[in-house]
Each structure stands twice: as C-alpha cells, then as structure tokens.
Design brief:
heterodimer, A: 341 residues, 4-stranded mixed beta sheet, 14% strand, B: mainly alpha, Formate dehydrogenase/DMSO reductase fold, 17 helices, 69% helix, binds iron/sulfur cluster
C-alpha cells in the first residue's frame, strides 16, 4: 500500500456524494474555515466556565481526599486544618473545626410534646443559626406544620401559616425534621456511601464525598433532606465558629445536608439548639440507653407515637402528648417564615 | 492492530463526508449540542438553581428524559429477539441499526444523569466507594454501562468484520447477543426499581411500574426504529424491506395494547380505591388544590397513546403514512407519560403534604435539547458509517489496498414511500 494509492482511495471514501474533495487550495481554505468555526463555537460553549468561583475548582488535595471512613487520623487532621483555613479565608473568622466521635453506650433519641408546641418556629431559626444554613437562598431543616385538629393528614397541613399570634385554637402543631431513622432509606440508596448511620444513631453526610445525585432526597419519607442548589450564603458575622466536620461546617454547592441532632454539641454533652431555644419545653432530647434519661422516661410513660409508622423506617424521633392535653404557654408572636435568625 | 486503526480512521473520515443536506443536518445538530453545552457550563457555575428543581421536586426534566431513553435503548433487543430466536430474516439486516441506536441512546442516558449531578467533578467517587448491591443506583450504573459495552462490542465487531470482508465468527458475537437480550430487560427493570423501591413515594411504590416500563419501551423503541429505517432507506443505498417494517409494526401494536391495558389497571387501582395515596395521581390527571401544571400534558399523552393504539390496530396502518403517524404519536405520548408523567407527580405533594409545582427553566430545556442533538448526531454518524461498510463499499481492501470504489449513487434505490400493502 503506497502513499499514492492511499490518498487516491482516501479522497473519495465511499465514492459518495461529494465529488472527490482533493486537497485543492479552495478545499483547504474551506476546511480550515470549518475547523476554525467549530473551534470557536466550542470555545464559546465553554466560555461560562471562566466565571467558576475558585472554591468550585477542586484542588488536588480535595480531589484525592478519601472518604471519611477511610481517613487516617493524620489525614483527618490535615482536612480539618484545610477547612479551618478555608473558613478563615472566606469569612475572616477564626473557627474551630473538630470531629467529635460518637460516644459508646449512647443512642440519641428525640421526643416532641405536641400538646405543648405552639408553632412559634423559634426552633427553626435557632437551627439555622447554629448549623450555618444558607440565608440566601433560605434553607431550614425543621418544618413546623400547622395541623387541623382531629386530623393527622399531612396533606391538609399548613406549611406557611402566618397569623399575628400563635397558637391558633383550631390547630395543633407538628414540627418535622430528620427522624434519624434506624432503617434509613436515605442511606440505603446513596450510590457512593456519602451518607451513613453513626453508632449513636445519627445519620450524617460527608459533604466532601456527596456527588449530589439527590436520590436520598427522593427516598426520605419525612422530607428531611435539603440540597444546595447554589452556593449557600451565610453572612460572616452570622457564622457559628464552632464547627463539626459531619455537621455544621460550611457546605459547598451541589451537596446534600440535613439535621444532625447538632452532633458537634450533643456529642459533647450539650443539648441541640432547637431544644435549648424552645420556649414551651416541648422538645426533649437524650440518650435512650440511659434508663434515667428524660427521653427514656417519656418513652416508658407517655402516650408516644411516630409519624408515618407505615413506611417502616423506625425513627428515633417520637411525638407524644400530655394526658391533660393542656397548653402551658401564653400566646406570643410567631417568627415569620422569611425572617432570618 | 494497524488495520483496526485504519478502520477507525476511515470511520472518522467518513463521518465528515456527505452531501449538503447531510452537512446542514450535522451543523444544526452540532450547534444545538454546543448550545446545550453552554447552558450546562452555566449550570456548573451557578449550580442547579438554573433548573426548575427545588427541594420539593428534586428530580425533573433530566431524570424524566433519562427514564424514557432507558426504555428506548432496550428497544434494540426487541429487534434482536425475532431475528435470532425465530430466525425472522426480514429483520436481520435492521438489527444493527437497532443496536447502534442503543449505543447512542445509552450515551444520552449517561449524559442526562451526569448533568443532573450536583457535583459531576466527583463522579469518580463511584469507583472509590460503590454502595453495591444495596443502592439501586449502583445497579443501574452497572446495567447501563454493561449494556453500552455489549452493544458496542456487537456492532463494532460486525462492522469491523464487514470492513475486513470477513464472515463474522459466531462465537464472537452470538453469545453476546443473547446476553444483550437479557440485559436489555434488566436495564429497564433496574431503572424501574430505582423508583419502585422508595417506600416514601406511594406514586412510585407500585409493582406495576416495571411491567409498564417494559411495555411502553417495547412500543416506543420499535416505533422509533420504524421511522429511522425509513430515513435510512430514503437517504442511503441500504435496502430495508417493507416486511421488516411490518414486523416491527406488529411489535409496536402488541406492546401498545399491553401498555394501555396496564395503564387502565393502574388508573383503576388508584382512583377506585381513592385512598390518601391517590394524591399524586390526582395531581397528575386532575390537578390538586388548583395546581394543574401537568394536567394538559398527561391528557395530551393519553390522547396520543389512545389514538396511536387505535391507528395501529386498524388494518390501514399497514400503509406507511398511517403507520408513521401512529409511531410519532406513540413516541411523543410515551415520552410525556414515561418522562414527566412518571417522575414529577411522585414529588407532588411532598411527603409532608406541601404542593410545589415544577416548571423547567429555559436553560434546563436547552441542556436537554443539547443532549438530544448530541445523541442524534452520534446516531447519524453511526448510520452514515455502517451503511457503506455493511454494503461492502468501504472495506480494508478498498481503503488501503487500492481497489476501485463503486459510487454510492449508482446503487442507491429510488426512495420508496406511500402504501406498502
Ligand atoms: S428522616 Fe429522612 S433523612 Fe432522616 S434518617 Fe430518616 S430517611 Fe434519612
Ligand atoms: S445526594 Fe449525596 S448523599 Fe444523597 S444519595 Fe446522592 S451522593 Fe448520596
């Protein structure tokens, strides 16, 4: 096969259509123009990428970072330091980034008294402040539903109620957040194991591992997961500097997040922010394995139920009501849904 | 090895050769694909806010198209079955177009999943920690990529053999063909399980979804191929017999009937029971609390599907014009029903009873159009290459051995159209 033959055959590959585009000058120019047009069109198509924020381009270290469960202690140390640096650069805040581990002999559960809850949404905003949730666009882990008395039908609940005073006499209130299920469907579906259940019962997400497929969000029966559809915005002066790797450290865009029972607090013996702020004492939290804990007492003695028991995910979040069924709080003004903390 | 590169080189070169209509078509597709790329780059910069998706409706047009296309991809197997099992020779020469379609469509599927990811830069995490066999998504990753490889192998091998002027050795492809048939069923079953396995979404949590998937794919896929084959025989020298088209028509006909029957079963179960679980279906067909975004769509789909079924069962659909309209109706009807009609209502109302509607944004639509254009581009190239190769007009001997090349124009038949019966 010599070169001459080759180019001969090559000039009209199938003998098709075009009448043998030999390498004439005009043909060459035309081809050149076509290539140039194609290249510039491709460049134009890629042009938006020049606006990519520097933190959106993963550094080599970030690209190679291991899954949380595979990191050795020195590697984890390096990652925590990197996050501290990033927070410093981005917010000018000297934060402490830690990774408190689950305590042995501890399984956290939540109990919420629906006879006391008055639907004031203070928990919602305390949570936003504690966990550095995005203020713009606004993200909230807790959704308080205003329920019709006599109905547990969620489809008839009001999500955006906004009266001058709460509680509304014809309603009761049902706050919903992640139920830290013992059989969590969100964990089951994640293709890359970016979310898993810790030994103390808290389901966490490695924000550096999530690929943002949102399968877990579709799987959660309690609508507890939130996705960063864009880069979350937290004003620097609002940033809570007490940061946990698996909980409230600033999240990048394109990843999932949700309630973690404030594990950076609760694993150090403090209460979740929502428990602390609740003016009516409707929220109880503790270690269910400790028979003397308040939650263990409630589970033993109160009228307890779980939401959507039929989906079978075994929540660690219980609702209960008082035998007397009374409310102990004077009416107060609710925080509006749009108001920041 | 050198011969293989010669093959690839000839293929690449061939894809740039054609008459002005070919060039115009390819230019339009390229422009659309690049526009889609542009919109996707914007999405990379700003995040998925550029789409209409929200925490309430967290999957939209991308996953809808993905779902539909998985069905289409499996259509290749529908053509293979009669050829290899029933030795239906009418279809023998069209199988390769079905499998090439599968390759192009699976690539589109993978693109649709990629653009749906919040962090495509982390896609490699799939190789580093793979939640198999617990997560259905990992099954889908395996099923789709496996199907892609199988079909690439089968088409590539057959084409390469034709290029070298050899008779294909059966052991090198027939076993793969049988695996591909089973695999084709698995890709939709697994994709259906992706949705069916979610207990928190009653709209999906129904055993009928997987069979309905199969039925609608068996209708939409061959319908698509009927149209493609006519384009192929109109514009190239490849001969496609009317018998082949009529065999395909029978497949579409039966699949469409089964599909409509299963739809009836589903609608009855939902609405006769009338339990709380019906909310999503009610939203889809009638609207909920005054929100009716999907209602016109689904009724269009129902009308199209009914009309297509009707056209397919009347004898006059042996005429190509009627058959073609029935195919177009079925393709569009199933696209709506298996796409938006299957994905979006599952999110409305949310598990907490909130009703938020989903409206795709312009950029999202552009990304989708871009992927469709890219898929068509790929498929056009595949067909462009395979027709002369299969016809023996482009072989290693001719390309590198200096034999004369026959002109395509001489061998091209006059376009056939109109009535076949
Ligand atoms: S409530 Fe939802 S997010 Fe929380 S553990 Fe259960 S399934 Fe997962
Ligand atoms: S969005 Fe993230 S956490 Fe959720 S399933 Fe996908 S990868 Fe896993």
């Amino acid at each position: 096969m010599n070169a001459g033959e080759r180019s001969d055959a090559g000039s009209s590959p199938t003998g098709a259509n075009t009448s043998g585009p030999r390498l004439t000058r005009r043909g060459f120019l035309r081809k050149g123009a076509a290539v140039a047009a194609g290249a510039s069109a491709a460049a134009a198509a890629l042009s938006p990428l020049k606006d990519l924020a520097p933190e959106d381009v993963p550094s080599l270290a970030q690209f190679l970072q291991k899954h949380y469960k595979e990191m050795t202690p020195p590697e984890k140390e390096a990652v925590l330091n990197r996050i501290t640096r990033e927070v410093k650069d981005r917010y000018g805040v000297a934060a402490t980034v830690t990774d408190p581990l689950p305590l042995t002999g501890v399984e956290f559960v939540y109990a919420l008294n629906i006879s006391r809850c008055i639907g004031c949404r203070k928990c919602v905003h305390a949570c936003v402040a504690e966990n550095n949730q995005s203020r713009a666009p606004e993200m909230q882990y807790i959704r308080v539903l205003q329920m019709e008395k006599g109905s547990i039908d969620l489809e008839r609940s009001a999500h955006h109620y906004d009266p001058p005073l709460v509680p509304d006499e014809a309603s009761y209130y049902l706050p919903v957040q992640c139920h830290q299920c013992a059989k969590p469907p969100c964990v089951k579906v994640c293709p890359v194991e970016a979310t898993w259940q810790e030994p103390d019962g808290i389901t966490v997400i490695d924000y550096d591992w999530c690929i943002g497929c949102r399968y877990c969000e579709a799987a959660c029966p309690y609508w507890a997961r939130r996705f960063n559809f864009t880069a979350p915005q937290v004003p620097a002066d609002k940033l809570n500097p007490d940061l946990g790797y698996l909980s409230n450290r600033p999240r990048p865009k394109g990843v999932m997040e949700k309630c973690t029972y404030c594990l950076h607090r609760t694993r150090r013996g403090r209460m979740p922010a929502c428990v602390e702020v609740c003016p009516t004492g409707s929220r109880k939290f503790g270690n269910v394995l400790d028979p003397d804990s308040e939650v263990a007492y409630i589970l033993r003695h109160k009228r307890v139920f779980i939401l959507k028991q039929d989906v079978g995910t075994l929540p660690r979040f219980f609702y209960y009501f008082d035998e007397r069924g009374s409310r102990y709080h004077e009416p107060i003004a609710p925080v509006l849904p749009e108001e920041g903390a | 090895m050198r011969r293989y590169f010669a093959f690839l080189w000839d293929c690449a070169r061939l894809s740039f050769v054609g008459d002005w209509r070919y060039h115009a078509w390819m230019t339009v597709l390229t422009a659309l694909a690049l526009t889609g790329l542009y919109a996707w780059c914007q999405q990379l910069v700003h995040g998925l806010v550029t789409t209409g998706m929200t925490d309430q409706v967290s999957w939209g047009l991308y996953i809808a198209n993905f779902t539909y296309l998985v069905g289409l991809a499996a259509a290749a197997a529908m053509l293979v079955i009669p050829v290899y099992i029933y030795r239906n020779l009418h279809l023998h020469d069209v199988v390769i177009f079905g499998e090439l379609l599968a390759v192009a469509v699976i690539i589109m599927c993978l693109l649709f999943v990629t653009v749906d990811l919040g962090r495509p830069d982390r896609a490699l995490h799939l190789f580093r920690r793979f939640n198999f066999p617990i997560s259905m998504l990992t099954w889908d990753v395996i099923a789709l990529n496996g199907y892609l490889l199988l079909n690439l192998h089968i088409c590539g091998y057959l084409l390469y053999c034709a290029y070298r002027g050899r008779t294909p050795t059966k052991v090198f492809y027939v076993p793969f063909v049988f695996v591909a048939i089973v695999w084709a069923v698995s890709i939709h079953t697994v994709t259906a399980f992706l949705y069916v396995g979610l207990g928190g979404r009653p709209f999906w949590n129904s055993a009928i979804i997987a069979p309905r998937f199969l039925a609608s794919a068996f209708a939409a896929g061959p319908a698509f191929i009927i149209l493609t084959l006519q384009v192929v025989r109109h514009y190239t020298s490849h001969r496609v017999s009317d018998d082949a088209l009529l065999t395909l028509r029978r497949i579409v006909q039966v699949a469409m009937l089964i599909n409509m029957f299963l739809l009836g079963c589903e609608v009855f179960t939902e609405f006769y029971t009338d339990s709380a679980h019906v909310a999503s279906a009610r939203y889809l067909y009638f609207g909920l609390a005054g929100r009716t975004a999907l209602v016109p769509w689904i009724w269009t789909a129902v009308a199209f599907n009914l009309l297509a079924t009707l056209l397919l069962v009347v004898p006059s659909s042996r005429g190509l014009r009627v058959l073609n309209s029935a195919c177009v109706l079925a393709i569009v009807g199933i696209w709506i029903e298996k796409g938006m009609g299957l994905i979006v209502p599952a999110f409305v109302p949310t598990p907490l009873g909130e009703i938020v509607e989903y409206y795709p944004t312009g950029r999202e639509v552009l990304v989708c159009l871009g992927i469709w254009a890219f898929g068509l581009l790929l498929y056009t190239i595949f067909v462009r290459i395979s027709v002369p190769v299969l016809a023996g007009e482009l072989t290693y001997q001719r390309s590198c051995g200096g034999l004369p090349v026959p002109s395509e124009r001489e061998t091209r038949p006059q376009p056939t159209g109109g009535d076949v019966s």
